[in-house]
Amino acid sequence: MSPNALIPSHRKPRRPSASSRALRAGVTGGFLTLAVTGATVPANAAEKPVAETQEMPTITTALATSAAKSADTAEQVAFNYERQALQDSAFSKASKAAEKHKAEAVKKAKAEAKKKAEEARKAKEAAQARASRSSERSTLSASAPSSSSATGSSATLVSFLKAQLGKAYVMGSTGPSSYDCSGLTQAAFNQIGIDLPRVSQDQSTAGTQVGLDNLQVGDILYWGSAGSAYHVGVYVGGGKFIGAQNSSTGIVERPLNYDMPTGAVRVL
Predict the structure, then answer these.
(1) The model scores a pTM over 0.70
(2) What are the beta bridge partners of residue 251?
(3) Residue 53: left (phi > 0), alpha (psi -120 to 50), or beta?
(4) Does an H or E element contain 99, and which?
């Protein structure tokens, strides 16, 4: 044995290098594990080993796949919302267009129906007017009372008028040898105490207006409008009238359908 073996050494133990490190790495439970030893310490620090462990998350394949699926899902949801919005907008526009078209169709149908109804009404009125005129002619010529049924004042009136047949027509004349149309009627009604206006326009409104299908002996017939008639005569029954027609024929008796009057007034 060496004589120095029992003599303790006065040299200090050798310290680890301040810059030396030992790094251990490993994967545990999906985390990266770093073990650092021998970290740098100041020279005057207490001498003790340093061991520190840090764990960092590791991006695994499953995590990446999950993140990708989440992104795809979000994109699909956004696409679905956008598509639904476009569909809703298109449906709204189509609905409004359909409503507008329907309203226009209904309006057009109503206008057509109104037009047809108006045409039908006018056609009906025209048919009724033709039927009425035809009925009036038939009634006046077939069922009118005869002159023999006239009594009293009407008989006197008819008698005077028949006595004037064949006399001349002279414009402005009131008898006794010639007459114009209104002069004859005025003279005839004077025989029964009725004073008529002088001209045909006034005589056409002198009494009560009556229908041509309801004539009585002694009714004054007029041609033209009431109040502006251009000719007058007197109904004598049997579908006939007497009047001063014109300078060619003079005073004559004619059937009503020879020259159908416009209207009639009753003064008796």
Answers:
(1) no
(2) 244
(3) beta
(4) helix 61-142
